[in-house]
Amino acid sequence: MIELKHVRKIYGSGQARVVAIQDINFKIVQGEVALLMGPSGAGKSTLLTIAGSLQKPSSGEVVIAGQEVSKLSTRELSKLRLSELGFVLQAYNLVPFLTVAEQFQLVDRIKHNGNLSHEELDKLLQRLDIKQLLNKYPNQLSGGQRQRVSIARALYPNPSVILADEPTASLDSERAVAVGQLFQQLAQEYHKAVLLVTHDQRLETYADHIYQMLDGKIQVADN
Ligand SMILES: Nc1ncnc2c1ncn2[C@@H]1O[C@H](COP(=O)(O)OP(=O)(O)O)[C@@H](O)[C@H]1O
Ligand SMILES: [Mg+2]
User: Fold this and answer.
1) Residue 124: inside a domain, yes or no?
2) Number of domain units in the chain
């Protein structure tokens, strides 16, 4: 679904130059959950955002759903992102002045087709235990609630690829397990490709592959 070929990312220049990731070859495959683990500063978020075409690599190639990202216009790229990719980012991607229910309605206004049905959304909200929050604003939610709403918001457009950065960081164990199971089911039953950047060892049981990242490089760990 997504392939990175010889991808490098360098931030800044001169004294401030940082090689965030180097010569990364990596695939995110349909039907599988991959975990990307490793210490802070290893380059995990950089890899995730490049894989999701939210930023450009300094060199190398990114292919999403068969399309080489660098060859697409801004417009084509937005369309690709909208139809294929679901992001759960650390800065929760909720609109502050919209209620939880309105976050989903906003998606309907941007993307008219292929979003979850009422029944499917209802099930998802129940599963994430956020159904009772539909009329609340993001600043009325706890960190964990916001995180779960953010996951539901990312899944609502029914993306084929899910890219999540520390999706369980503020969740207790029961809820972290529920989220792990949800991602696993999305991969196994709905053939989605899932990449989770995480420190959370509670998610390891749900992964098909675990990659360790250190100093901008990936090593395969196990599974
Ligand atoms: N926007 C940026 N500008 C400059 N340096 C950055 C930027 N984003 C990340 N970095 C640097 O790149 C390296 C990798 O960061 P990041 O991808 O955020 O790692 P991780 O998510 O594993 O903590 C770190 O040294 C970080 O300081
Ligand atoms: Mg990070």
Assistant:
1) no
2) 1
What would the pLDDT profile of 187-212 be if each residue is shown by its tens digit? Answer: 999 999 999 999 899 999 999 999 99
Q: Which of 8, 9, 11, 196 to mutate to test the pocket of ligand 1 (most atoms within 8 A of CB)?
A: 11
Domain residues for the domain of 189 are: 2-94+156-222
Whether residue 223 is predicted with pLDDT greater than 70 in this model: the reply is: no
Q: Which ligand is nearest to the Cα of residue 38, counting in written order?
A: 1
Ligand nearest to the CA of 12: 1
The best mutation among 35, 46, 211 to test binding of ligand 1, ranked by most ligand atoms within 8 Å of the C-beta, falls on: 46
Residue 73 tokens, joined? 């216009």
Q: Give the amino acid at 10.
A: I
| CATH number of the domain residue 88 falls in | 3.40.50.300
Q: What does the pLDDT look like over 48-95, one tens digit per residue?
A: 999 999 999 999 999 999 999 999 999 999 999 999 999 998 766 899
Q: How far is CA 76 from the centre of its chain?
A: 20
Asked if 172 and 143 count as a contact pair (C-beta separation under 8 A), the reply is no
In a domain, 137, yes or no: no
Q: Which two tokens stand for residue 180?
A: 């792990």
